[in-house]
Amino acid sequence: MEPICGGRSPIALELQPGTYWWCVCGRSKTQPFCDNSHQGSGIEPLEVTLEAPRRISFCTCKMTTRPPFCDGTHKRLPPLPEEAPAVSPPGMAP
Ligand code: FES
Fold it and tell me: Residues with beta carbon inside 6 Å of ligand 1?
């Protein structure tokens, strides 16, 4: 299975030292972290270990080139159908 889009914008969090599991598959309902929804997908979460408190902007679209960090790729995602600009048929007023 391929990762799916888990969100369309990053989630910024202030985290304490510890181990976190970033959702790679995009199916977790607790983005940006794993909720075990990857079971059976063949995709495993990414371990993130912090030695000191840190603010992290986590990718949720799963298209970043720097996992688990947002790299701005979500800004280039195609618009959702409800976000696409309305197009009037030729000859019709908008
Ligand atoms: S949320 Fe994925 S690159 Fe920003």
Answer: 9-10, 59-61, 63-64, 70-74
